[in-house]
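Milestone 3.1: sequence recovery, worked example.
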């Protein structure tokens, strides 16, 4: 099954307009490239954390009661490692959300998991709890690349996890990969791509490794190694070639590119991720989670990144925010345009300008230059980046913003 969601008129993408992101911060080990809010724990406070996220939800709905009746079109459990959370606690949290909010028909409910055997043993329980989209953090099949990324699984575990997911009857199985890893070759990336499509997933996400400190939420072991000159990443041209190889292999096997780093079979694009790319609202719960709401005024908030600080705040009846940022027209415009240009369908750039009170004419000449030089195409008012343009997405957006 694919999931129901409205079509965003500015991009033509099916995307949730209101979603909920729930962050589960606990892991058995922290990967050296990870800058997410993650806590390494052998004993996870599973029940306490379930109580806390539902208490946070109550607090946020008390502050913003109109969200109770706003149709929730996507729900995403990310991490961390949500597949460490016992299915009975996941079921209780999902039931608690359903009791407090309005769920849209065809709700997409995603859970991130690892391919380890212990995680796969829980898949049937997650399916019974209401999860209908499973996203597995594969990253690579290559032993050398997995070691470089600090991953504990191997290729056989990935194949076993996909088999377990199919046996559990998940309608959608998504696989996530990383390329541009230190020591990785283009041939290895191509081999990963062929092995990935052979598993017949509905969705594939493949991201370039991010190590540079200035674009991370916090320092990571790999970013520190890079700063000390101890880490050598593939050359930029090699990384671009890896990305093109991935696109070619996926496309040849029926997984069309719909966003810079995402491919899917027809009808199986991620409605929740598309929410981020099309300016939708999202409530966020849990340690380190980031939410963006348009009411009562547009704002973004970030929760406390320390699990103990988060739990203490919630249990004391406080909203566990670390920061809140008001979003004015300029911030909303920049995000809407740059995220829209990540989509292969492109975005009605003039409508984005008009919606947020930004002038069109000063940007028109730059749009024409992008089209003339092969970085973008234009269909009516819809501007879309070519593959060449997508490779330099950030630079293109800087010229338009």
């Amino acid at each position: 099954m694919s999931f129901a969601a409205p079509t965003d008129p500015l991009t033509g993408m099916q995307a949730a307009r209101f979603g909920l992101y729930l962050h589960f911060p606990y892991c058995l080990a922290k990967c050296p490239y990870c800058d997410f809010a993650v806590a390494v724990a052998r004993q996870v406070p599973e029940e306490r954390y379930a109580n806390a996220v539902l208490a946070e939800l109550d607090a946020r709905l008390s502050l913003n009661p109109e969200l109770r009746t706003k149709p929730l079109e996507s729900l995403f459990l990310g991490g961390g490692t949500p597949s460490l959370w016992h299915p009975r606690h996941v079921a209780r949290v999902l039931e608690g959300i359903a009791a407090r909010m309005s769920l849209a028909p065809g709700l997409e409910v995603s859970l991130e998991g690892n391919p380890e055997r212990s995680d796969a043993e829980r898949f049937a329980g997650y399916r019974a709890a209401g999860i209908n989209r499973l996203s597995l953090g594969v990253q690579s099949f290559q032993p050398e690349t997995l070691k470089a990324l600090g991953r504990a699984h191997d290729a056989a575990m990935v194949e076993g996890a996909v088999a377990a997911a199919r046996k559990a009857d998940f309608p959608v199985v998504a696989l996530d990969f990383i390329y541009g890893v230190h020591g990785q070759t283009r041939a290895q990336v191509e081999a990963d791509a062929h092995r990935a499509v052979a598993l017949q997933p509905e969705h594939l996400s493949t991201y370039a490794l991010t190590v540079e400190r200035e674009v991370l939420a916090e320092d990571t072991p790999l970013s520190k190694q890079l700063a000390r000159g101890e880490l050598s990443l593939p050359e930029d041209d090699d990384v671009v070639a890896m990305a093109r190889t991935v696109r070619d292999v996926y496309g040849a096997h029926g997984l069309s590119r719909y966003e810079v780093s995402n491919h899917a079979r027809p009808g199986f694009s991620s409605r929740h991720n598309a929410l981020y790319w099309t300016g939708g609202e999202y409530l966020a719960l849990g340690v380190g989670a980031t939410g963006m709401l348009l009411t009562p005024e547009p704002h973004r908030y970030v929760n406390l990144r320390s699990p103990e600080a988060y739990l203490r705040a919630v249990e004391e009846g406080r909203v566990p925010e670390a920061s809140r940022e008001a979003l004015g027209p300029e911030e909303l415009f920049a995000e809407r345009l740059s995220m829209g240009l990540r989509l292969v369908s492109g975005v009605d750039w003039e409508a984005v300008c008009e919606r947020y009170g930004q002038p069109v004419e000063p940007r028109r000449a730059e749009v024409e230059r992008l089209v003339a030089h092969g970085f973008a195409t234009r269909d009516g008012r819809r501007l879309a980046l070519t593959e060449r343009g997508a490779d330099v997405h950030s630079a293109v957006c800087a010229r338009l913003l």
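Residues 18-278 form a domain with the TIM Barrel fold (CATH 3.20.20.70). The chain has two domains: 18-278, 329-400.
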